[in-house]
Amino acid sequence: MFQNTKDSKTKLSELGEFGLIDHLTQFFKVKHTSTVKSIGDDAAVLNHDKHTVVTTDLLVEGVHFDLAYMPLKHLGYKAVMVNLSDVYAMNAEAQQITVSIACSNRFTVEALEELYSGITAAADLYNVDVVGGDTTSAIKGLTISITAIGQVKSEDITYRSGAKPNDLLVVSGDLGGAFLGLKVLQRENEVFKVNPNAQPDLEKYTYIVERQLKPEARKDIVELLKALEVKPTSMIDISDGLSSELMHLCKHSKVGANLFEDKLPLDPLCISTCEEFELDSTTVVLNGGEDYELLFTIDQSDFEKIKANPNLTVIGHMAEQSEGIHLISRMNTKIPIKARGWNGMEEED
Ligand code: ADP
Ligand code: MG
């Protein structure tokens, strides 16, 4: 994970708005030929030869992040990932982002440098150009809005609406880690408040803490599916938890689904952390959120192409809309998946 480096504290007013923008954006280099004009004019100019995909997310301090346990560099990195994940969920290649920030004078130049070092790291690793943004003061807190822009051949676009009954439901990676990482960080923060000298013991939780603080958008999965010659019939990214994203796919595709509890991909650390917090691991996977994995459906004829891949797990299949959306439990009971949350005790009548 990232380390904090800066100790000095320069007030934002010392640089002024234009000085600050120049300072923060001075190292951005253009990587894509589709970026015709980057930072520096009234607007950026892009020239995509395929369809353009655009998505925006807004992150508000106290609502979407807490700086008590979220270092600014990680926040910058994650803010980019949240957006790139939406571009990848369209089966597109992300190429540009814009970054807009509003912050109070509680933030120093060094603090924004930290934020931008995370943004820069993400832009470099994921090969996107930072082509513009806006910078303004705020009365309170920090707000970041990132817009990501990508491109995709029209025939490759994956909407939420393309799933058919009997398509296989597939997820990348494993689920629940980001939520459990947050639980661990919140617990450490409470300990710290009571005893500021307590040393946080996060080492054994590294994987899930990273899932929360430094999530990776699944660019690799889009590339993998292309290499395997699999075009998902529908796709969505898992930002709000598996159950609500599955419900979105079903609603937009006008289908039902059966999800198998024993197929849900869980890291061993997630299982042990659930035991420690006395949480039901299935509930955590269904409702946890922030895992930024891709959930998609494929035609059954594509099963052979994906079945051996360790990054992909078939977790269920789509059904007729009239059949509804169910979790098939380990005990082989059918439990309806509902809009808000999931009650493990509930069974179908
Ligand atoms: P305008 O007055 O047209 O809003 P600005 O002075 O705000 O222009 O911005 C100047 C240039 O710097 C523009 O290209 C803008 O996109 C870019 N920019 C402003 N703020 C940011 C930021 N936080 N991150 C990246 N680029 C930025
Ligand atoms: Mg501006």
Automatic annotation (TrEMBL):
Signal peptide start and end residues: none
Catalytic activity of the protein: thiamine phosphate + ATP = thiamine diphosphate + ADP
Keyword hit for Magnesium: yes
PurM-like N-terminal domain mapped to chain residues: 40-152
Keywords: ATP-binding, Kinase, Magnesium, Metal-binding, Nucleotide-binding, Thiamine biosynthesis, Transferase
GO molecular function, one term: kinase activity
Residues noted as binding ATP in the record, renumbered to the chain: 116, 133-134, 160, 239
Residues reported in the UniProt entry to bind substrate: 64, 290, 342
Binding site for Mg(2+) 4: 42, 55, 86
Keyword Magnesium: yes
UniProt xrefs under Pfam families: AIRS (PF00586)
Binding site for Mg(2+) 1: 56-57, 134
Residues binding Mg(2+) 3, per UniProt: 42, 86, 237
Pathway listed: Cofactor biosynthesis; thiamine diphosphate biosynthesis; thiamine diphosphate from thiamine phosphate: step 1/1
Enzyme Commission no: 2.7.4.16
Residues the record lists as binding Mg(2+) 5: 240
Gene3D superfamilies, per the entry: PurM-like C-terminal domain, PurM-like, N-terminal domain
Chain residues that bind Mg(2+) 2: 57, 86
Function statement: Catalyzes the ATP-dependent phosphorylation of thiamine-monophosphate (TMP) to form thiamine-pyrophosphate (TPP), the active form of vitamin B1.
Entry-linked NCBIfam families: thiL (TIGR01379)
Note: Reaction mechanism of ThiL seems to utilize a direct, inline transfer of the gamma-phosphate of ATP to TMP rather than a phosphorylated enzyme intermediate.
Stated family: Belongs to the thiamine-monophosphate kinase family.
Official protein name in the record: Thiamine-monophosphate kinase
Annotated organism of origin: Psychroflexus lacisalsi
